[in-house]
Specification:
364 residues; single chain; TIM Barrel; alpha/beta
Length: 364
């Protein structure tokens, strides 16, 4: 299903008919070269790395260039009159490993973008500016792709397999509650202790360390809400960010490429931005009013349906969801839910977690 990653208006048409014919041919050739190279990278992220977040970033860059590939550039060049068409180099036959193909195509795109940046300044300044922006974004994307292909904990595959996400609240006996939820089948836990909980940083650290150990023992992912420093201190699998927290790009620089970043979203524009920013998953809600988010207007199931139609990364419906609400949420297109009170305030957290999972599977 196509995800509309870039929602800027179409690029203005430059006075391309007045450009030097040689420059026009050059621009067309390098737009083709850059877009083709990005597609190579995109398909590798999709079919080998199985990283929808990286796929979305490649697609976004490719579509941005496509908006500037105007007809007058395409009409300026014909393969039959290109003296270098079909020219190959012996080095191409030496690219036998995927890493070599990726490196060659990343370099190909970067070189083409630099040519566009230099030669489009006069006939198409918007293209020149976009090429410069994409070139710098590609540097970071290439590094993330290389890291994704390296050996290490496969957190994103684990994330994709998670259907039930427990977000903690400061309840009595928190460690016991989480342990019982893990026994009930929860495989993704977020430690959330806001300022109103009245805990010191030392107390938060001790709680997070204990929950991290529990999650590791059960093979579950462990995330920390907001606090990147705390996530790093306990070697968490990642963080969850609200709309008012640090931008995902800053979090990624601090956490590195291997850890997970989630983002709360309340409307489709925020979801699209989270995907563009390279988040690994998003929360979609609140579906219903919940004391966990006082004052937050519920988004209902309409936003869940929008997310189901176009979100290319895992998303979790959240907000006042219990076992009775699961069928309606599933009917709206959600395959994953995040809960707080349905487990933390349950008389039997283990049974509650198992019941929620059965409800999710029953509608599959």
């Amino acid at each position: 299903m196509t995800f509309p990653l870039s929602h800027a208006p179409a690029a203005p048409q430059p006075a391309g008919n007045h450009a030097d014919p040689a420059v026009a041919r050059l621009l067309d050739a390098n737009l083709d070269r850059a877009r083709e190279g990005l597609r190579v990278l995109e398909d590798w992220c999709r079919f080998s790395l199985e990283r929808p977040d990286l796929v979305a970033r490649c697609k976004d860059l490719r579509q941005r260039l496509g908006r500037h590939h105007h007809d007058h550039w395409k009409l300026a060049r014909h393969t039959a009159t290109d003296p270098a068409a079909g020219m190959a180099h012996p080095a191409q036959a030496e690219r036998l490993q995927p890493s070599q193909v990726l490196a060659a195509n990343a370099g190909r795109v970067q070189e083409a973008l630099r040519v566009l940046e230099e030669f489009a300044r006069s006939p198409d300044p918007a293209l020149a500016a976009e090429a410069a922006l994409i070139r710098y974004r590609l540097y970071d994307l290439e590094v993330d792709m290389l890291r994704a292909g390296a050996a290490g904990p496969d957190r994103r595959r684990q994330l994709a397999a998670c259907a039930l996400y427990l977000v903690t609240s400061p309840v009595e006996g928190l460690q016991s509650v989480v342990e019982r939820a893990l026994r009930g089948g929860v495989r993704l836990v977020q430690y959330r202790a806001k300022a109103e909980a009245g805990l010191s940083d030392r107390e938060r650290l001790e709680q997070a360390q204990a929950l991290r150990i529990l999650c590791a023992a059960h093979g579950a992912l462990f995330l920390v809400n907001d606090r990147i420093d705390l996530a790093l201190a306990v070697d968490a699998d990642g963080v969850h960010l609200g709309q008012d927290d640090l931008p995902p790009a800053v979090a990624r620089r601090l956490l590195g490429a291997d850890r997970l970043i989630g983002r709360s979203t309340h409307r489709i524009e925020q979801l699209r931005q989270a995907v563009t920013d390279g988040c690994d998953y998003v929360g979609v809600g609140p579906v219903q009013a919940t004391p966990t988010k006082p004052g937050r207007t519920p988004v209902g199931l309409a936003y869940v349906q929008e997310a189901a139609e176009e979100c290319p990364i895992p998303f979790f419906a959240i907000g006042g969801i219990d076992a009775q609400a699961v069928p309606a949420v599933r009917a709206a297109g959600a395959r994953r839910i995040a809960v707080v009170r349905a487990i933390t305030e349950a008389a039997d957290p283990e049974a509650s977690a198992a019941t929620l999972l059965r409800a999710l599977e029953a509608d599959a």
